[in-house]
Design brief:
Shape: globular
Strand content: under 5%
CATH class: Mainly Alpha
Structural class: mainly alpha
Radius of gyration: 16 Å
Distance between the termini: 47 Å
Number of helices: 9
Number of domains: 1
Helix content: over 70%
Length: 204
């Protein structure tokens, strides 16, 4: 067993898309495009957690509970989309772009490996800070707060502190070689998420 912890490959708040979000420099079209693309990731995360649970039996109950929580957050993301005047039909019709499709492929493939818990870790470890900044930007510049579409970000700014600590404990319990693999997994997922953010900027 190992007591090692993972290190984020990238600071997502340094991505130009998020810097512009916090500053209020994103267009509504950019926000709308991002909301439709990231909706695919929000919907996929519960399944990735369940795949990780299947290959991490000692932590299966905890990971499945985590997945069940994430199931309920899909509706919160849709509320954010609705605040941007995106309809359910538009969400359903929005196909993953190349970057999003690649991230979805990575998540599906990697979450079923023994180090698969690192997929969720990569998505959630920075979420408390990122969600807090995004919520601040939405309130200050776009008129969207937790009461009218941004509850997803308020929830995740707090809840993912707990989720990340739980995922850290799971990763620390892996064999040393699997911790090394988990770091590679997290790096790959963060690279994919970075590319998704870049694709949202370029689409505007």
């Amino acid at each position: 067993m190992s007591e090692a912890h993972l290190t984020p490959r990238r600071n997502l708040l340094e991505h130009p898309f998020y810097r512009r979000w916090v500053a209020g420099d994103l267009s509504t079209d950019e926000l709308r495009y991002y909301a439709c693309q990231y909706a695919h990731v929000v919907s996929a995360l519960p399944g990735w957690l369940r795949r990780a649970a299947a290959v991490t039996p000692a932590n299966a109950a905890e990971l499945n509970r985590h997945a069940a929580e994430e199931d309920t957050h899909i509706a919160l993301w849709h509320e954010f989309a609705h605040a941007l005047d995106i309809t359910e039909d538009e969400l359903a019709a929005a196909a993953p772009n190349a970057a999003t499709a690649d991230l979805l492929r990575r998540g599906e493939e990697l979450s079923g490996q023994p180090s698969g818990v690192a997929v969720a870790w990569a998505l959630e470890a920075q979420t408390p800070a990122v969600s807090a900044e995004k919520l601040s930007g939405l309130k200050a510049h776009y008129g969207i707060g937790s009461e009218n579409g941004a509850e997803y970000f308020e929830v995740h700014s707090a809840l993912d502190v707990v989720h990340t600590a739980e995922l850290d404990d799971v990763i620390a319990g892996l064999d040393e070689d699997q911790v090394v693999a988990a770091q590679r997994t997290a790096d790959a997922v963060l690279d994919g998420l970075w590319d998704l953010l870049t694709s949202a900027e370029r689409a505007a």
